[in-house]
Design goal:
The complex is a heterotrimer of chains A (654), B (285) and C (255). With 654 residues, chain A is an all-alpha fold. Chain A contains 25 helices and two strands. Classes of the chains: A mainly alpha (654), B alpha/beta (285), C alpha/beta (255).
Chain lengths: 654, 285, 255
């Protein structure tokens, strides 16, 4: 309790420092505050700093309550509006509305934000419901949905051609106010929400015994879950609408409440809003003080995002006991084809046929058609470069995904989830900001180094926990989350160098040179050979550490080697397609769906499917909105996402 | 179904076509908008421009109807670019990361026009002779520059009555604005017109990151110049906002509203900004 | 030379000592039962001698050589270990699972030789799994699956089997089947086995020797008949029991 009081005192102190450096106490106006009779500095206090302090408290409380509700109803210490994709959904809706239907925002942003938040959270929870709300699966699904929304938002921002100022603000999470309307809206929502949460406390407590026990005690789960989630989503959407993206407060608040000694669920529901208010006030107070001292002005959302990643890592070891056993298992009995060679041959011919088709066919200013012979000399080298690079990138990502799924025996494992791409993005950004006018080689080195660093951190962290699959994935997600908040902060700075990073984030084949494409292809082939050579290992590893060890596998060096190679392959591929593609997640899932079960055919099949998907994506990216190239990774995701979603929705019951 | 022969003819037609004015000089394609505008000012309009749709919205003078769109500036469509068969590609330091790809298609003329902390206007002026030389029309720059200088001088004279410094901003929402510093096109133009920019702090570059509305209270003496439309969602809250309505320039009615102008344009956009600013100032006065 | 020799071995998890300064010899060529109450450390001990966990202190040797000095694959040719919960072998046929047992001999890249095929086929034969060879493992019954995993251990060609509660999920008929298989092989081929068992009567029926643990310390080490006295059972389980002879074997019944 003592540290909490100290933190509260500090938050108040920081705010007061900022307020007093604006206006000495003697000049503070008495009530009522009428704007007409106040001086400009007084207005800045009464209509600026004061409501800002209130908004920090209220928005923090809303997020804290939302996080506590989500964690209670999902029995998942990692649930919060940022890890379930809720905040990203609201964000995407706001960005899309700003661009396409600004009139929809004229009457306030809440309906738009709420629609977006629900549109993302509900499918994520539908997937979760099919898997018994297994925490890791739900978190991964949520964060993937969030990453997808962020990617679409990035593409929209990019397609705008210049920075829309309001987009930057939505993404920044800025708390500054110029009247009390924001504070009033938040307060009007928070009070009834608190009352509702108090009503939900006892049923949620029963639910904390587990779904079966709760049903046994006569609790009807569906309305309870729906009600609590709806409440949490509404709170989160409101905060998005009022102040923009403020990440991870909902994750931190319940953890802090627990650390403050809130053992019972009811105490957690009550303390979490307090903790959230404290966290956000503290973060904002630090920023206000920095500014009052003449320091740089940062956005509050970026600040809380920076805390989020490390926090997630800190929470990881504390959640082991709370995962229901068996909940994270695979799909149960799976189909196995009788003719894996035939399937592989079919896939290979598909890749070849599609490559040739897209090499010669396409869309130009005059519409669809085949390249005329007269222009082939100009076109074929360009297209061959693009197609080769896309095939190789898809194969590399899919191969990494296959390795990671075998390594962790978790069908949700994927390089996108391991934070490697996030690390590579940070490396790229660092290169852009630190080196004046960096060349392609410097950029490649920078992002490779970033990916390797993320991987090193990940491995160091996961080794401590004996590389338990769930920990590995969550650690990766935490690194990814950290990277994306740093990137968001960079974007919010509206520095023109952020443009370069944004362009890369979107992923484009336009930057590939023929040499680069050839090298990528060579790497992909070597990777495939290595994977087939490792097939016997990949056969045994999913049987778990005890069996692997008992059969004499050199477990630790083997795992490290596999993680490292998957990381390098991902880093190389994401140089081309940007950090988001989900090919590494989707291709292995598709390979399983085709009945490729044994290690050698599984990795080869994944590799081929990855190449195939990326070839389709490359074609779509350059033709769908010709001449405006779409981000390759985004198209790849859209190509495979519907299928992936159906797979995830399929019941696990064997 | 189009026959192969017909398609070939159509494609060849596209390649041979292009704006009529360009027929005398080299065929040029522009990735950067400032370069595109400068080439147009020299009477050599590019036959292909990146993000043509966006440029049409903000450009100082409209590109020809037959101009080919090359897609995004950051990721131009290389197929469309090579299809337009340029002799010269105009780019800038913004797009240096894609320069190797461009160079595979045609020679590239790339200039650093917007550099943090430096006034872009002299660079835009210096660009014209360089560009005219590259276009094989060295005599084209002098008359354009002379006319521009004369326009600037004339406009500066018309602003002479205006005493207050200008604060150049773009409204994001009811609580945030973006402010243009001395290293922006607008800041540089203001300087050329002999007027003071109220914002003397550094900028990250060209325009400052979102600035909270309350910072405007620090400039009671300035006239506010709003570049571009105020977003819908900000309009109503601005009308009612306690702070906005108590800002000294707002109370005085010292607020100028300009249309959306290419903030990273060439000399023509600078001239357009100067003209619009003077018109707005005179309209109010 | 004894199969395993433990000298002053301890093993901890945060906040608790599971094995407490244990010194012990386990005999070769016998079936040894590891018994004790829940939490007495019997599974932990099995994992330690299987090389799955490293002791916090003390020495464990197999065939006179410290466990840590054995290269992993060499050790896997000597010792086969079956965890308490067998993993889900998704999409694998029974014959393929059994063939995985040849990894210690052929490594990641080595080709299968005739003796490998012979070892696999012999292991399936001995476990009576020939007719099921092409079935997917996850479609087998619990007993068949357990025999499949034991067949994999046999294909491994190890002279020592370590089994962690191999009968806990099986009905009585399958319990008898699995333990009978181990006993027969030990008698016929001199195989050694260490089996963690809950049921003292099964231990008495199928095992030659017994090691009983209590709180991570040795409670009893000797021929299995030493366990089947009311005094020993009371010491190990803390429960008064009587021992009655039934069809030639001692049978323990709680009082």
């Amino acid at each position: 309790m003592k540290p909490a009081l100290a933190a509260a005192a500090l938050a108040v102190g920081l705010w007061a420092f900022a307020a007093l450096s604006l206006l000495s106490l003697a000049d503070w106006p008495g009530l009522p505050w009428r704007a007409e009779s106040l001086g400009i500095d007084q207005i800045l206090l009464t209509h600026g700093l004061m409501p800002r302090g209130a908004v920090a408290l209220l928005a923090g409380a809303c997020l804290g309550l939302a996080g506590a509700l989500m964690q209670a109803v999902l029995r998942n210490p990692l649930a919060d509006p940022s890890t379930l994709g809720t905040a990203a959904g609201a964000q995407l809706a706001l960005v899309a509305a700003t661009i396409f239907a600004p009139a929809a925002l004229a009457n306030g942003a809440l309906p738009v934000a709420l629609a977006g938040a629900l549109a993302v959270t509900l499918p994520v929870l539908a997937i979760g419901a099919r898997r018994g709300f297994a925490p890791v699966t739900v978190t991964i699904a949520g964060m993937l949905a969030g990453m997808l929304c962020a990617a679409v938002a990035t593409a929209l921002t990019l397609a705008q051609g210049h920075y829309l100022l309001s987009l930057v603000i939505w993404n920044g999470g800025a708390l500054s106010q110029q009247d009390w309307s924001g504070a009033r809206n938040l307060a009007l929502a928070l009070l009834p929400a608190l009352a509702l949460a108090a009503l939900l406390a006892r049923p949620l407590m029963v639910l904390s015994l587990g779904a079966e026990a709760a049903r046994g005690l006569g609790l009807s789960l569906a309305p309870l879950r729906a009600g609590a989630i709806l409440l949490a989503v509404a709170l989160s959407a409101l905060v998005s609408a009022e102040v923009g993206l403020v990440g991870f407060v909902g994750l931190a608040a319940p953890a802090i409440a627990r650390a403050m000694g809130a053992r019972s669920l009811k105490a957690r529901l009550l303390l979490s809003p307090l903790a959230g208010a404290l966290v956000l006030s503290l973060a904002d107070g630090v920023l206000l003080t920095l500014k009052a001292l003449g320091g740089p002005s940062l956005s509050t959302g970026a600040m809380t995002g920076l805390i989020g990643g490390p926090l997630l890592l800190w929470l990881l070891p504390r959640m082991a006991a709370q995962v229901p056993p068996g909940a994270e298992a695979g799909d149960g009995r799976s189909y196995r084809t009788a003719h894996p060679r035939r399937v592989l041959a079919l896939l290979l011919s598909g890749v070849v046929a599609l490559s040739l088709l897209t090499l010669f066919g396409g869309r130009g200013p005059e519409g669809w058609g085949v390249i005329p012979a007269a222009l082939q000399g100009t076109f074929l080298p360009l297209r061959a470069t693009t197609i080769t690079a896309a095939l190789a990138a898809g194969a590399l990502l899919a191969g990494s995904g296959a390795v990671l799924q075998r390594l962790t025996a978790n069908p949700m494992a994927a390089p996108e989830v391991l934070g490697v791409t996030g690390g590579a993005a940070l490396g790229y950004a660092a290169t852009v900001f630190l080196i004046p006018a960096p060349g392609p080689l410097a950029l490649a080195l920078g992002s490779g180094l970033g990916g390797a660093l993320a991987l090193t951190a990940l491995t160091a962290l996961a080794l401590r926990a004996d590389l338990a699959p769930a920990r590995l994935l969550l650690a990766g997600l935490a690194i990814g989350a950290f990277a994306s908040s740093v990137l968001a902060a960079i974007m919010a700075s509206s520095d023109p160098r952020a443009w370069v990073v944004l362009g890369w984030l979107a992923g484009s084949t336009a930057q590939v040179t023929p040499t680069g494409a050839a090298m990528l292809a060579a790497f992909a082939l070597i990777f495939l050979v290595a994977l087939i050579a490792a097939a016997r290992w990949l056969e045994i590893l999913p049987l778990g550490a005890p069996v692997s060890r008992a059969l004499g596998l050199p477990l630790t060096p083997l795992r490290l080697t596999l993680i490292l190679s998957a990381g390098l392959a991902t880093g190389a591929a994401s140089l081309l397609v940007g950090p988001v593609s989900f090919i590494g997640l989707m291709a292995p899932q598709l390979a399983r769906g085709l009945g490729l079960v044994r290690a050698a055919s599984f990795v080869t099949g994944s590799w081929l499917i990855g190449a195939l998907l990326m070839c389709i994506a490359a074609f779509g990216a350059r033709t769908a909105t010709f001449p405006y190239d779409l981000p390759l990774g985004l198209v790849a995701t859209l190509v495979g996402a519907p299928w992936l979603f159906l797979t995830l929705l399929r019941s696990t019951a064997a | 179904m189009v026959t192969r022969r017909a398609l070939l003819a159509a494609m060849a037609g596209v390649v041979a076509a292009g704006p009529a004015r360009g027929a005398t000089g080299p065929r040029i394609a522009a990735i950067d908008w400032a370069m595109a505008e400068s080439a147009m000012a020299l009477g050599h309009p590019p036959l292909a421009v990146a993000e043509l749709k966006g440029l049409r919205r903000v450009a100082a003078s409209l590109p020809a109807e037959t101009t080919i769109d090359l897609g995004l500036r950051g990721a131009p469509n290389l197929e469309a670019l090579s299809l337009s068969a340029p002799d010269l590609i105009l780019s800038s330091s913004y797009y240096s990361f894609i320069q190797p790809q461009l160079e595979r298609i045609a020679p590239v003329l790339s200039q650093a026009l917007y550099v943090p902390g430096e006034d872009p206007l002299p660079k835009l002026v210096a660009l014209l002779p360089v560009l005219a030389q590259a276009l094989g029309d060295p005599g084209a720059a002098a008359p354009v520059l002379a006319e521009a200088e004369a326009s600037f001088d004339g406009l500066a004279g018309r602003l002479a009555g205006q005493e207050r410094p200008f604060l150049l901003l773009e409204v994001g929402d009811a609580r945030h604005v973006r402010i243009f510093g001395g290293d922006s096109l607008f800041g540089g133009t203001l300087h050329r017109l002999g007027r003071a920019n109220a914002w003397t702090d550094g900028t990250q570059f060209a325009f400052h990151a979102p600035v909270p509305m309350e910072r405007l209270a620090d400039f009671p003496e300035a006239a506010l110049v709003i570049a571009g439309e105020v977003p819908v969602q900000a309009r109503r809250s601005l009308e009612r906002g306690a702070l906005w309505n108590r800002l000294a320039p707002v109370v005085r009615g010292d607020v100028l509203q300009l249309p959306e102008i290419n903030a990273f344009g060439g000399l023509p956009s600078a001239l357009r900004f100067a003209r619009e600013l003077v018109l707005a100032a005179e309209g109010r006065g | 030379m004894s199969l395993f020799s433990l000298a002053d071995v301890s093993f901890d998890v945060p906040g608790r000592r599971l094995i407490d300064h244990l010194s012990l010899e386990i005999a070769e060529g016998a079936v040894t039962a590891l018994v004790g109450r829940n939490g007495s450390g019997k599974s932990t001990l099995l994992k330690l001698i299987a090389g799955q966990n490293r002791p916090a202190s003390g020495r464990i040797a197999h065939a006179g050589r410290a466990l840590a000095d054995w290269p992993p694959r060499d050790l896997a040719r000597q010792i086969a270990y079956l965890p308490q919960v067998t993993p889900v072998a998704e999409g694998i046929r029974l014959a393929e699972l059994v063939a995985l047992g040849r990894y210690p001999w052929r490594g990641a890249l080595g080709r299968f030789r005739p003796e490998d095929h012979a070892a696999v086929s012999d292991a399936m034969q001995r476990c009576g799994l020939r007719p099921l060879a092409d079935r997917l493992v996850d479609t087998l019954s619990g007993g068949e699956r357990q025999r499949g995993w034991i067949a994999m251990m046999l294909a491994q060609g190890a002279r020592t089997l370590l089994l962690d509660e191999p009968t806990s999920a099986l009905d009585i008929a399958h319990q008898v089947e699995v333990l009978g298989l181990v006993q027969t092989m030990s008698r016929e081929t001199g195989l050694s086995a260490v089996i963690v068992l809950h049921d003292v009567n099964l231990a008495a029926r199928y095992c030659d020797r017994v090691v009983a643990l209590d709180g991570g310390r040795l409670a009893l080490d000797g021929p299995v008949r030493d366990l089947m006295t009311p005094e020993a059972l009371a010491r190990v389980y803390g429960l008064p029991m009587e021992v009655v002879p039934r069809s030639g074997y001692p049978f323990a019944v709680p009082l």
